[in-house]
Amino acid sequence: MTPSKSKNPEYIQVSGYISRQKAIKFRAYCKAKEIEISEVLEKLIDQWLEEQGNPLD
User: How far apart are CA 49 and CA 13, in angstroms?
Assistant: First the structure.
């Protein structure tokens, strides 16, 4: 079993504010599809960085 991301030094927590309604829908969808919220966020951030030309590379 792999350690949780919260205990893995290769991961850090990020946060932001979105509308309550959007957060509720997002969490419900992830739960229904059995998808980790972190997986979705990481994929979306990767896509966004790619669109930006990977400014940190």
Answer: 18
- Indicate yes or no: pTM above 0.90: no
- Which tokens go with 51? 């669109």
Of residues 9 and 54, the one with the higher pLDDT is 9
The pair of structure tokens assigned to 6 is 């919260």
Q: What angle do CA 57, 47, 41 make, to 5 degrees?
A: 110
In the prediction, which pLDDT does 57 show? 65
Which H, E and C letters describe the chain, residue by residue? CCCCHHHCCCCCCCCCCCCHHHHHHHHHHHHHHCCCHHHHHHHHHHHHHHHCCCCCC
